[in-house]
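ok so for the tutorial part 2 we go from a plain amino acid sequence to predicted structure tokens. step 1 is just haveing the sequence, like this:
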Amino acid sequence: MYCKVNKTDSIRFLFDTGADGSVININSKKKIPLKIDGKSENRGSNGMNPVEYSSNNTVEFGNIQKTNIQLTMIPYNNANFDGVFGTDMMTGKIIEIDYHQKEIRFYDENDPSINFSGYEKMKLHLIDNYPCIESSITANGKEYSGFFGLDSGADDALTMASPFAKKNDLANVMKKVGKATAQGSDGSVYEMPVVLCPSVKFAQKYLYNVPITLSVSTEGMDSTEKMAGFFGNKFLKRFNTIIDFKNKYIYFKLNKNLYSEFN
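step 2 — the prediction. this is what the tokens look like for a chain of 263 residues:
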């Protein structure tokens, strides 16, 4: 989505439910008037790294203006976006992600005009500020369940956290079909095995033969013991979604992307 940052228009943001803070790609900071005024630690999917940040920024999108926004500087190398739109800019609104119309709609909380018909309502859990739902995968007749993060900023289908994958020996439970290379916000590039999962239960629906990656990380979010895994946008795009952060509910409805290829 395109936003205006400190009056500079057409700044392209990746809409990322897996990021609890917003980011400017360090390669794009010359486009935007920013005052660097602090340093912090960024926790990426595979590790930690020190980063600079800029405070007290104004971000505008549609007819909404957010002030006092902190923007962290992260190098995304050749990524084709200028920044990451994190959940810090999503809260305070009910958000509808409509893959049919290719629109993201921001509603006032408790807006009576929101159409929930056809949606499956689920409890939204926030684990370390990460939006999660309860879900499960099945292989060889056994169900593996837990909390799964929702990461619209990831372009894979599903990544299993390394402790969960190791504990349940998922590398040997499912058929290996390939490998994937990923880059996290911490700048690390790492390789993971890809296995074919026979069945994924999500929002009371079952999706079959889903290629999933098995993290081997020892640091970062992918090494968490609090979550089983993370659904990426290659999976999430099959469901139109309404997110209600205030009341901690999330709604899913199957869409035309259901039968699109995973690979």
